[in-house]
C-alpha cells in the first residue's frame, strides 16, 4: 500500500520546456494517448480473448499539485487456456514501475507497453487463476470536454479545495487503471483503496468498508461483490458533505441512498436537498416498471461532479446544476440513474448494441413523465425527442464496434441510439401491449422473468437477446419490426393516395423488406385499425376528415420533421 504521495515520493522538476508541467522522477510520460488507448471496445485482441477479471483490487493516491496519479492494481485473472503472454490495457502516459505474477516479479524487459496494450511475458507459462500486480504512476489524460471527452479532471471547488473526478466511457477504463477495455471486461468483484488528504472525501463504487486514518491523509476502502461496469468504476474526491437516508423497496428490502455534494452556501444546500428528495420517487418508478434496484447491497449513490453526469455504478455522477424542466424532474439525473438498470445491471456484450443502454435509458424519461403527469406529458416529451432523429446510419451494424464508431454521428448512429432507440420502444410498446413489452424488458435486464432481491446478478445481452425475448413474450416472429427499425437507417414510409372515393395506404422500406405495422386511421373521429399485411384502401367521401395515426404511435418518416429541421438549419 502506498501512502499519500506528497512528501513520500521524490519528484524532480525539469525546466527545459517552460510550457510543460514538471515531470515525475525524471521520467517524461507521453504527451498524448495512443489511438489504441483512445479506442474502447471493438475487436478483442487475441491475448485478451477468454480472459476474465475475477477480482480487481485497486489502490490510488495523488499528487494534486502536479496532477500525478499513483496506482497499484492487483487483478485476479482467469482463463480456460494457458497463456505464455498476458495482456491488459493501460495508457502509455503511465510509467510501469514493476509487475508481479503470483507475487513473483517479472523482469522489466518482459513488460512492454508499445501502444497501450501491456504485454507481460513471465519467465514460464502461467496457468489460471493467477494474480497480476502492477505498480504505475503518471499524468492521466485530462479531458477537454468531460464527460464526452474522457479522462481525469483536476479541478478546484469554489473554496479552492481539490476536486477530482473521472469520466472515461468514451475512451475506456485504461485511462487510469489496468483493465480489459471491453464491455465484457467487468471485474466480478471490486475493492478500491483511495488515499486523499484528510480534509477530503473519496466517494466511489460499492459500499464503504473502512476509512483508515493516517497523520495527514485518510484511505477510503470501498468494496462491491457485484460485477462492475468497466467505465463505471470511478474516482470522486472533494470536501464533500452527505445527505443520507434509507429506502424500503416494494420488494421489502432496504438499502441506503447517499448524495455527496459541495455545500457552497445555504441556497446550494437547499437545492441539494430537493435533488435528494427526488430519488425515492425515481427508485419506486424503476422498481414498478422494470424490477428491483440491482445494487442494493452497495447503495444508491450520487456524487456532485465538475462535469455534467455519467452512469457510474452505485455512484452516479451529477453536475446538472439542479435543473428541472417543465415535466417536474431533473431529466439528466433520471437518465443517468436509468443506467443502473440499462448499462450496469444489463451491459451490452459489444458497443454495437449500445442502444440497449441509451435507447431504453432515454425512453425512461417520457415514461417517467407519464408516470408523474399522465399522457399529455408523455406525448409532449416524445415529440420533443422525435425532432432529434437523423436516420443517417442503422442503430445496429451487426459487427463488433468500438465506442467511437457508435457514438460519432459521422461514423455511426450517434444520438439516434438515444432518441430513435426511445421511439422504437414507444412504437413497440404500442404494438405488443404493456404486459408483453415490460416482461420482455425485464427478462432482458435480469435474465429471468421473476427478479427478486438476491436471485439475480448483472448480465450481458445483445440485440438478438432482446428480440428473442419479445418474440417469446408475444408468441410471434417480430423480426420484421426490428429488421426495419434497428438494421436499416431510413424510417419506413407510409405512401398515402387519396381520390374522391377512397384513400389507400402502403408501407415502403428502404430495403423493400416486409413491414406489417398495423395502422390506426381516424375518419371523422371514428378510429379504424388496419392490419396492413398488404396495401389497404378505405372508401371515403370528399368531405371526410382523415387523421393518420392519431395517437402518434408509429415511428415513421414524416416530412414535417424534416422540413422543421431544414428550416432550423437555414
Automatic annotation (TrEMBL):
PROSITE patterns: PROKAR_LIPOPROTEIN. The keyword Transport does not apply. GO terms for cellular component: cytoplasm; extracellular space; membrane. Residues 55-231 form the Aminopeptidase N-like N-terminal domain. Residues 285-485 form the Peptidase M1 membrane alanine aminopeptidase domain. GO terms for biological process: peptide catabolic process; proteolysis. Its EC number is 3.4.11.2. It is an enzyme of class 3 (hydrolase). GO terms for molecular function: alanyl aminopeptidase activity; metalloaminopeptidase activity; peptide binding; zinc ion binding. Its cofactor is Zn(2+). SUPFAM superfamilies: Leukotriene A4 hydrolase N-terminal domain, Metalloproteases ('zincins'), catalytic domain. Pfam families: Peptidase_M1, Peptidase_M1_N. The keyword Zinc-finger does not apply. It catalyses: Release of an N-terminal amino acid, Xaa-|-Yaa- from a peptide, amide or arylamide. Xaa is preferably Ala, but may be most amino acids including Pro (slow action). When a terminal hydrophobic residue is followed by a prolyl residue, the two may be released as an intact Xaa-Pro dipeptide. Keywords: Aminopeptidase, Hydrolase, Metal-binding, Metalloprotease, Protease, Zinc. Belongs to the peptidase M1 family. This is Aminopeptidase N. It comes from Salinimonas sediminis.
Amino acid at each position: 500500500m502506498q501512502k499519500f504521495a506528497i512528501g513520500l515520493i521524490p519528484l524532480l522538476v525539469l525546466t527545459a520546456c517552460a510550457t510543460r508541467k514538471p515531470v515525475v522522477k525524471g521520467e517524461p510520460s507521453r504527451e498524448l494517448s495512443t489511438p489504441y488507448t483512445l479506442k474502447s471496445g471493438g475487436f478483442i485482441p487475441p491475448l485478451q480473448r477468454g480472459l476474465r477479471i475475477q477480482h480487481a483490487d485497486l489502490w490510488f493516491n495523488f499528487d494534486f499539485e502536479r496532477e500525478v496519479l499513483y496506482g497499484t492494481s492487483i487483478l485476479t485473472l482467469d482463463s480456460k487456456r494457458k497463456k505464455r503472454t498476458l495482456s491488459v490495457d493501460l495508457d502509455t502516459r503511465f510509467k510501469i514501475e514493476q509487475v508481479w505474477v503470483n507475487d513473483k516479479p517479472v523482469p522489466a524487459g518482459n513488460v512492454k507497453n508499445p501502444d497501450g496494450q501491456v504485454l507481460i511475458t513471465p519467465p514460464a507459462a502461467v496457468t489460471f487463476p493467477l494474480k497480476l500486480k502492477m505498480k504505475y504512476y503518471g499524468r492521466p489524460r485530462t479531458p477537454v470536454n468531460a464527460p464526452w471527452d474522457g479522462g481525469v479532471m483536476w479541478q478546484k471547488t469554489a473554496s479552492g479545495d481539490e476536486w477530482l473526478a473521472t469520466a472515461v466511457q468514451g475512451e475506456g477504463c485504461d485511462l487510469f487503471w489496468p483493465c480489459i477495455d471491453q464491455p465484457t471486461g467487468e471485474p466480478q468483484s471490486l475493492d478500491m483503496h483511495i488515499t486523499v488528504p484528510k480534509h477530503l472525501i473519496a466517494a466511489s463504487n460499492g459500499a464503504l468498508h473502512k476509512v483508515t486514518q493516517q497523520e495527514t491523509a485518510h484511505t477510503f476502502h470501498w468494496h462491491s461483490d457485484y460485477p462492475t461496469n468497466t467505465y463505471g468504476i470511478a474516482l470522486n474526491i472533494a470536501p464533500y458533505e452527505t445527505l443520507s437516508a434509507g429506502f424500503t423497496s416494494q420488494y421489502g428490502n432496504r438499502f441506503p441512498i447517499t448524495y455527496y455534494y459541495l455545500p457552497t452556501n445555504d441556497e446550494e444546500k437547499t437545492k441539494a436537498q430537493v435533488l435528494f428528495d427526488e430519488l425515492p420517487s425515481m427508485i419506486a418508478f424503476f422498481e414498478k416498471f422494470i424490477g428491483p434496484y440491482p445494487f442494493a447491497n452497495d447503495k444508491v449513490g450520487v456524487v456532485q461532479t465538475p462535469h455534467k453526469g455519467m452512469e457510474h455504478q452505485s455512484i452516479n455522477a451529477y453536475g446538472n446544476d439542479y435543473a428541472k424542466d417543465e415535466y417536474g424532474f431533473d431529466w439528466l439525473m433520471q437518465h443517468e440513474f436509468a443506467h443502473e438498470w440499462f448499462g450496469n445491471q444489463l451491459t451490452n456484450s459489444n458497443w454495437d448494441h449500445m442502444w440497449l443502454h441509451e435507447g431504453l435509458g432515454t425512453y425512461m424519461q417520457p415514461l417517467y413523465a407519464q408516470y408523474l403527469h399522465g399522457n399529455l406529458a408523455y406525448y409532449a416529451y416524445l415529440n420533443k425527442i422525435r425532432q432529434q432523429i437523423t436516420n443517417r446510419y442503422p442503430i445496429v451494424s451487426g459487427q463488433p464496434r468500438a465506442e467511437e464508431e457508435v457514438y460519432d454521428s459521422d461514423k455511426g448512429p450517434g444520438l439516434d441510439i438515444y432518441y430513435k432507440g426511445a421511439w422504437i420502444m414507444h412504437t413497440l410498446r404500442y404494438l405488443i401491449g404493456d404486459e408483453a413489452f415490460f416482461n420482455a424488458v425485464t427478462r432482458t435486464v435480469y435474465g429471468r422473468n421473476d427478479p427478486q432481491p438476491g436471485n439475480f446478478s448483472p448480465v450481458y445481452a445483445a440485440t438478438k437477446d432482446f428480440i428473442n425475448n419479445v418474440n417469446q413474450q408475444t408468441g410471434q416472429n417480430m423480426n420484421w419490426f426490428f429488421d426495419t427499425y434497428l438494421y436499416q437507417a431510413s424510417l419506413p414510409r407510409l405512401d398515402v393516395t387519396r381520390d374522391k372515393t377512397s384513400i389507400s395506404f402502403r408501407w415502403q422500406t428502404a430495403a423493400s423488406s416486409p413491414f406489417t405495422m398495423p395502422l390506426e386511421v381516424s375518419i371523422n373521429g371514428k378510429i379504424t385499425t388496419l392490419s396492413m399485411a398488404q396495401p389497404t384502401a378505405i372508401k371515403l367521401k370528399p368531405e371526410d376528415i382523415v387523421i393518420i395515426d392519431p395517437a402518434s404511435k408509429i415511428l415513421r418518416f414524416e416530412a414535417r420533421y424534416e422540413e422543421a429541421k431544414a428550416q432550423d438549419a437555414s
